[in-house]
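A reminder before we start the practical. When you read a complex entry, don't treat the lines as separate problems. The point of joint prediction is that each chain is placed relative to the others, so the output describes one connected object in space. Small molecules and nucleic acid strands, if listed, are placed in the same frame. In the example below there are two entries. Take a minute to note the order of the lines before looking further.
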Amino acid sequence: MLQVSYIRDNREQVLERLAVKNFKQANLVDEVIQLDDTRRQTQAKLDNTSAEANSAAKQIGELMRSGKKDEAEAIKAKTGVWKEDIKKYSEELAAIEEELYQKLVLLPNLPHSSVPKGLTPEDNEVVLENGAVPALPANALPHWELAAKYKLIDFELGVKITGAGFPVYTNKGAKLQRALINFFIDEAEKAGYREVSVPLMVNEASGFGTGQLPDKEGQMYFVNEDNLYLIPTAEVPITNLYRDVILKADELPVKNCGHTPCFRREAGSYGAHVRGLNRLHQFDKVEIVQVVNPETSYQVLEQMSAHVQSLLQKLGLPYRVLRLCGGDMGFASALTYDMETWSAAQQRWLEVSSVSNFETFQSNRLKLRFRNAEGKTQLAHTLNGSALALPRIVATLLENNQTDQGIKIPEVLVPYTKFEWID
RNA sequence: GGUGAGGUGCCUGAGAGGCCGAAAGGAUCAGUUUGCUAAACUGACGUACGGGAAACUGUACCGAGGGUUCGAAUCCCUCCCUCACCGCCA
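Here is the predicted structure of the whole assembly.
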């Protein structure tokens, strides 16, 4: 959620930035400013009336105590008008604030100056490519066939016990999951992140804090009986640990990481592109989350991007880094890097990570602040990234590393898998 | 699921219609003292939204929302949450 004061002070820039995100309802900006004007006027009226009523009430108290009943009654007689006005103004104020809020939440975060203009994924900017694409034999198999051949994943069994998009990992497939999770967590800890293990369900306030609600309500599984949402990403619980918190300056940066399963309804996405592990309703992911001083957040974003890249390098996967264009980036993000690995058998790039700086967009909702050098409270910046999401990593690992002898496990993973080959 | 207790500031905790944005203690910060540390003493110390160049000042906030009253942390209603014990259970 953008800050009204910022919108007021930087109207032109806000409009210009929103255009980069292809935001259509630019009129909302002026409506917000207009409403905020009205809000201020109404609050002034309410405050002044309340002040009068308060001091009158105080007087009545004093007069009563000193026995001057008649004078007290005289003042009492006048309070009716104030009372009506206060009721009227506070109802007005509540209505204005509600309307202002409803418009404010429709405004997406402002993209950073480096965000390229554009509408579709084709407009994303390729920042860099790294790693050699393996030359696979003509009979190379896609991962879902490899998974069947080596009995790593049973998709049909998942359908039986739950439904499509809920695979059952078996044998070395299951062990590979565990190995990757531990590898990713260990690497994050080496990079200075504290490991947390968090609930997989969150309440409404948490869903709201990180911006999933109300925008993406339909993408989350909801437990009606208890009013809880299954998390679509560990970002939600981990970032919400700091909801309604005022940190000391020296507590920044806060660096947390955690593994969780992620649950996504992915309503409306079917077809060839979602085959196998490409798109699931439940998958495992290690997430890295930081809360930082605004002055350092873009530096930190680069560090997080470098961390994700180091994982891909260690796994020996060819990858590229995209700077998302205005049209393709998320509602809450100011700058997003996507990391994609090249799936040699499918002959396509698969998104395996997304690293974003949200600046104050989340912290404004979370009321996540820190005390700055002047001792004033200031909104912190939040960032997060996948490091990494498992399924597509597994897909490319299987596909890219297939040989006649079987599938070769990357060296860094062998201490975790305790086997070198899937055969 | 049953029964009971309770939600007050960073924490503990008092307050039971006006003198309460809220005692006291702890924590924290600054200063004095001190060879260092500790201790002691002094002072500061909630958040948000308005107004003001600033000093300062108005309003709101004692789980949330309503109500009673000239006046509510305090009384009434509804809801939410937490804790304890019992039952069930990994």
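Discuss with your neighbour: Chain A has a mean pLDDT of 92. What might explain this?
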